[in-house]
Design goal:
- It comes from Bradyrhizobium frederickii.
- Pfam families: SBP_bac_3.
- The protein has about 300 residues and is of the alpha/beta class.
- The protein has 2 domains: about 170 residues, D-Maltodextrin-Binding Protein, domain 2 (3-Layer(aba) Sandwich); about 100 residues, D-Maltodextrin-Binding Protein, domain 2, CATH 3.40.190.10.
- The chain has 10 helices and 15 strands.
- The strands form 5 sheets. A 5-stranded mixed sheet has the order 11-10-12-9-13.
- A hairpin with a 5-residue loop joins strand 3 and strand 4.
- The radius of gyration is 21 Å and the shape is globular.
Length: about 300
């Protein structure tokens, strides 16, 4: 009996070693690049609360940064280089893909939506969040539904995928609106706050994050109408399946162990820096489904 038990332990240890070996031996251009330069470069957004933003100490923080930290640990194991440091690089909606493609960053740790069009340029991890775009208006506004935006000015963040979604909504409902674009989400909210725009169209969670940390969160409200879900993921270079497998493995392990649920609660159901606001957004059924069965699919 003792001998049989020992054999099982040896087999388990051997299986674990074999599981880890392919990552170290795989022909991954990204891993080769990281090994050559001696550091891991992570791109982060500066105002995408709670996924990636600058905390009160001016250091990047958020759910996506926590997940990227797990990815960095996987990279160190794969390359057998525990000393590898991390270089944090700020990115925005306009330059995040070019900076990934030219090798400035190895992983984009933000709130980027996985789409078929973007997959022609980059690759994505399994979904890390399921979002739905909505309209945000001033609480004092009389607008209660999208039709109330007729004849108004609306703002959309430059480079946001939701520009096309908003345009379709506007066209489908035959709304006569003027669309203006802001350089980032913070400016979009400011335009709404100062009355330069009547509504802002963006993913619900990104809106909730900025509103929670605004000087007066009660000054805003979301319209009830929501639209097709979209799936966020960590963004990586195309044509590097070995590296994608490593990134996916880091996230899947968090989801399987229950650690992802704790990270979600940390960022969506508890006070977060810098102002201690609680987004109070429990995990949706769509997100629970992706945690139970991780996937990078573009449909439910």
């Amino acid at each position: 009996m003792i001998r049989r038990h020992s054999s099982k332990l040896v087999l388990a240890a051997t299986s674990l070693a074999l599981f880890q070996m392919p990552a170290a031996q795989a022909a991954s251009p990204t891993l080769d690049k990281i090994k050559e330069v001696g550091k891991i470069s992570l791109g982060y957004r500066e105002a995408s609360i709670p996924f990636a933003y600058l905390g009160s100490d001016q250091k990047p923080t958020g759910l996506s940064l926590d997940l990227c930290s797990a990815v960095a640990d996987k990279i160190r194991i794969a390359l057998r280089r525990p000393e590898l440091g991390i270089d944090y690089v700020p990115v925005n909606a306009s330059n995040r893909i070019p900076l990934l493609q030219n090798g400035t960053i190895d992983v984009e740790c933000g709130s980027t939506t996985n789409t078929a069009e973007r997959q022609k340029q980059v690759a994505f991890s399994v979904a890390t969040y399921v979002a739905s775009p909505r309209w945000l208006v001033s609480a004092a506004s009389g607008v209660t539904e999208p039709k109330g935006l007729d004849g108004q000015t609306v703002v959309i963040t430059q480079g946001s995928l939701n520009f096309a979604v908003a345009k379709k909504v506007i066209d489908d409902q035959k709304l006569n609106v003027m669309i203006v674009q802001a350089k980032d989400h913070a400016e979009s909210l400011l335009m709404l706050e100062t009355g330069r725009a009547t509504a802002w169209f963006e993913d619900d969670i990104l809106i909730a994050g900025l509103v929670a940390n605004a000087s007066n969160p009660k000054a805003f409200r979301m319209l009830v109408a929501s639209y097709a879900p979209s799936y966020y993921g960590l963004m990586i270079r195309r044509d590097d399946p070995e590296f994608k497998a490593l990134v996916d493995a880091a996230i899947k392990e968090k989801m399987a162990s229950g650690a992802f649920d704790k990270l979600y609660a940390k960022w969506f159901e508890a006070p977060i820096p810098p102002k201690g606001q609680n987004l109070q957004l429990p995990m949706s059924e769509a997100m629970k489904a992706r945690v139970a069965s991780p996937s990078d699919a573009l449909t439910p």
